[in-house]
Design brief:
Radius of gyration: 55 Å
Largest sheet: 6 strands, antiparallel
Strand content: 15-25%
Structural class: alpha+beta
Distance between the termini: 143 Å
Number of strands: 11
Shape: rod-shaped
CATH architecture of one domain: Sandwich
Strand order of the largest sheet: 2-1-11-10-7-8
Order of helices and strands: EEEEEEEEEEEHHH
Helix content: 25-40%
Length: 197
């Protein structure tokens, strides 16, 4: 972007901001930079703008570039030069577009992947002398197998669990009860017969 400043004979300043590559300057209303001056001709000169430089071309009517007169010539001009066309002075400045710095934002996905891979490596790193967890048929010593239950289950002994009676024990208990009932009934009959007989 380039900004032209036009100072007229009364000292008033106008600005023109443009991104065009060619601007005409003169006394006609069709010129890109119109100077209301009787000493200025229509299309008095032309500014050619490139990325590298700005070139002013006088169309044969006479122009002062920083005090040096040129007629029908093309000269490169810098922002420090003053192009006097008639009673007006034209200068320019380059306006640089401000760029907003882009801050690096951490990638949530990449962080998750890193954590996942780290956790996976810690959990599934094979112990020395064991096979890799990526093998299709892991050996019995593979760290992918379930941990030994005895290492995590609470310690207890079988004696702490009451034994359930078997069928034979139940039958023996029932038979013994029947014998006891029969014996009691027999004793009762004997007593009745003794006292009542």
């Amino acid at each position: 972007m380039i900004v032209f400043s036009i100072i007229d004979k009364d000292g008033d300043t106008d600005t023109l901001k443009t991104s065009r590559t060619k601007l005409t300057v003169g006394g006609a209303y069709t010129d890109d930079i119109t100077l209301l001056d009787d000493d200025v001709s229509s299309e008095h000169g032309v500014f050619d703008i490139t990325k590298e430089e700005v070139i002013y071309t006088d169309n044969g009517f006479g122009t002062l570039v920083s005090g040096r007169e040129i007629v029908g010539e093309s000269v490169p001009i810098s922002p420090e030069d003053r192009v006097a066309v008639g009673s007006s002075v034209v200068t320019y400045t380059l306006e640089r577009e401000e760029t907003v710095p882009v801050r690096h934002m951490p990638s949530f996905t990449s962080d998750v992947i890193k954590v996942t891979r780290s956790s996976y490596s810690k959990a599934f790193t094979p112990a020395p002398g064991t096979s890799s967890p990526h093998e299709e048929d892991p050996s019995p010593e593979s760290p992918l197998q379930a941990k030994d239950v005895s290492q995590t289950a609470p310690d207890f002994e079988l004696r702490d669990i009451p034994k359930q009676p078997s069928d034979r024990s139940c039958f023996s208990s029932l038979f013994g009860s029947i014998k006891l009932v029969v014996f009691i009934i027999a004793v009762i009959f004997l007593l009745i017969e003794h006292f009542c007989g």
